[in-house]
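[Q] Does anyone have a clean structure-token version of this?
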Amino acid sequence: MGEPISLASGLLTLATFALQSSVTLYDTIERFKSHPKRVCDLKEELKALSEVLGSLIKLVNADTDSDLAALELPLLRCGNACKEFERELLKWSLRSSDGRTSLRDWARLRYMGDDIDGFRRLMAGYNLTFNVALADANLRKSSATAESLASYQTLIETAQAELKVHLEVIDSKFETVLRRNIPESDADNAELRAMQDERLNTEKCLQICTQSSEYLSQIQAIPENSHGFPGSDGPSSFSESLTNKSLQACKRNLGLTTAKLENHMEDLMNQLLAKSKREITSDDDWDLARLRDEWDTARQCIDICSKADNRLKENISTIENYATGDAAQLMVSTAGDIVRGRQVGGHLSDASVEQLSRDIAAINLRRTSYGPDSETGSQPASEFKDRYGWGFKLTPETSSSTFDRL
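[A] Here you go.
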């Protein structure tokens, strides 16, 4: 790749760049003879990252309709992070006379203020994000079992948790850098300190919105068009419908508020970086530009996981069996949504359900011991249906053999 890599390079180019960067970093680490456990853990993370990036490239090549444009920024940042870490690693290797990196050297290696474990967690965040996006794209084009859906839900929750922790770490680094370089008593920096305080307040408001949205999801009432509470046969009550609509309106408003707060936060970050450049000393170990890039990328990764989580919840119908006695449920969907359950059910017209019921009944009838003889090809006697249900005429051979067995 001779040309500079940027967001304008395209999804396939960025994915290939990230893959090549992760593989190169892995090979560079492999050349060193000393591999403490934390280094081995990083190698395993890079190997897993390379595998998911390879799968992502195959998907992009095979399916041009996959909407994965949101991955462009994470892919670019992932590739750049691997290259930057490799440069730091090679700097440390020059200090080893025999080409061997000692445990002490590995422990002292830093990237964006973090040690090797911190960089591994950074790669793990990208790995989880790419896995979520890949699973989301595949799920929209194929069916899935209840077990795989549960595993996918766990993957999303793990990714969201890890990314939120990573975002908190980035915020903490910003706070440390700015407080160290902005004198408290300097009146000229009053505006800069006020902007920093506003950034912290905005971050708290974003956390409140996120927690509120998660809480609303937990108390979400029965979806509309459901059959009310377990055991009821009628549609959702007026109170259920009204509550659902109110909860959904609250979530929409929280989403709009979150979007506005994120835009405000982005503006604050730009202003802080612009105004603080003259204050940051050349000896400062922190790289604010990279922190800013990582902040943007972490936000994008969280958004990818949130949208995948919403699609998972919106496109799956969970139908429980509340029937008693001998009963069969039909579980189907004509809208392309995923239906999750142990019975058969879903959204069909009355005529379609009636026809499907007749078809399944016919299949079950042929499988019973009283069904048609597969060898003789005997068929049910329809003249008995209205009085006693389906019956079968016995041939003389069948009658004889039956009484002989008795």
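[Q] Thanks! Anything notable?
[A] Strands lie at 316-318, 338-340, 380-381, 391-392.
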